[in-house]
């Protein structure tokens, strides 16, 4: 049985406090050593920058998707609807516009009517007797490619080819 | 949480420890054991932590720590550096109301274990 000792309760309180101090110090130590305090600053910086970017983007004086004629991307660049960089086709060597390269390749490499005709004409007559249509269409008898279907009708009897894009490039 | 140092031995004050005779457990040690066994120590710790966050004490200590880190360099700073740096200010800047509340709780506990 003892009288409640004020010193004792003070000591106990001090111990509690010391434990908490160690916890706080340990937490700060961890953050410092892991560089997380840098990240906190960075996050704030990024938030600030993104808020500024948003303000700029919604600024009516800039042309964006809603305003103005051209679509602008996040770097502020506007692009034409059809890619207009020009390079050389690695098959036929011609100068081709990038946005028109896929349809060009289709014809250039044999899907189109003119290309197949051209390939057929360039093979010998003997080969023609055994392979109907262009060399490309004989690869697999079971293929579903349109060239295969069409060549079964005879290479010269193709009618009704339609090209969804307008410009035919004459080989 | 692993970080809670409930069982950390009391930070020793400068004491005359030249005696070699085996010491009986001090009153403080006995009470500490009772505090821990009853779970009261954990509850008190939670209470203090909560109060010290509310009144901004923890943030102040955090700022002090950041200052030490800046001074010593992030790679060189140790937990001891930080503890030594914030203990004096930490002890001094406890709000009176928080101290009073905690002392009240502790004294109530002491009375309860005395019976």
UniProtKB/TrEMBL annotation, chain A:
Region of interest called Disordered, as start-end residue ranges on this chain: 116-171
Keywords from UniProt, A to Z, are: Activator, Chromatin regulator, Metal-binding, Nucleus, Transcription, Transcription regulation, Zinc, Zinc-finger
Origin superkingdom: Eukaryota
Transmembrane annotation, as ranges: none
Q: Does the keyword Transcription apply?
A: yes
Write out the biased-composition intervals (Low complexity). Answer: 143-156
Q: Where is the composition biased (Polar residues)?
A: 120-142
Protein location: Nucleus
InterPro entries the record matches: SAGA_su_Sgf11 (IPR013246)
Q: Does the keyword Cell cycle apply?
A: no
Pfam families assigned: Sgf11
Q: Which family does it belong to?
A: Belongs to the SGF11 family.
The protein's name is SAGA-associated factor 11
Q: What is the taxonomic lineage of the source species?
A: Eukaryota, Viridiplantae, Streptophyta, Embryophyta, Tracheophyta
TrEMBL record, chain B:
In residue numbers, the region (Disordered) covers 1-23
Q: Which InterPro entries match?
A: TF_ENY2, TF_EnY2_sf
Pfam families for the chain:
EnY2 (PF10163)
Please give the Gene3D superfamilies that the UniProt record associates with this protein.
1.10.246.140
How is this protein named in the record?
A: Transcription and mRNA export factor ENY2
Protein source organism: Penstemon davidsonii
């Amino acid at each position: 049985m003892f009288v409640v000792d004020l010193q004792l309760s003070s000591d106990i309180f001090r111990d509690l406090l010391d434990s908490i101090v160690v916890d706080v110090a340990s937490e700060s130590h961890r953050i410092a050593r892991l560089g997380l305090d840098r990240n906190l600053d960075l996050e704030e910086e990024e938030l600030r920058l993104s808020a500024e970017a948003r303000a700029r983007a919604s600024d009516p004086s800039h042309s964006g998707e809603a305003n103005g004629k051209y679509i602008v991307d996040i770097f502020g660049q506007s692009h034409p609807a059809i890619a207009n960089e020009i390079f050389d086709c690695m098959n036929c060597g011609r100068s081709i516009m990038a946005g028109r390269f896929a349809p060009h390749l289709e014809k250039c490499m044999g899907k189109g009517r003119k290309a197949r005709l051209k390939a057929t004409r360039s093979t010998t007559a003997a080969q023609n007797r055994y392979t109907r249509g262009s060399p490309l269409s004989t690869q697999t008898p079971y293929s579903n490619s349109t060239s295969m279907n069409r060549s079964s009708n005879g290479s010269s009897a193709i009618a009704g080819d339609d090209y969804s894009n307008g410009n035919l490039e004459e080989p | 949480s692993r970080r809670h140092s409930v069982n950390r031995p009391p930070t020793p004050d400068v004491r005359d420890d030249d005696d070699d005779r085996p010491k009986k457990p001090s009153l403080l040690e006995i009470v500490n054991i009772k505090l821990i066994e009853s779970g009261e120590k954990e509850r008190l710790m939670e209470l203090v932590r909560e109060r010290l966050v509310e009144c901004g004490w923890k943030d102040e200590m955090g700022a002090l720590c950041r200052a030490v880190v800046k001074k010593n360099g992030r790679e060189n700073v140790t937990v001891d550096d930080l503890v030594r740096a914030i203990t004096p200010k930490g002890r001094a800047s406890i709000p009176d109301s928080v101290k009073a509340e905690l002392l009240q709780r502790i004294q109530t506990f002491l009375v309860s274990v005395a019976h």
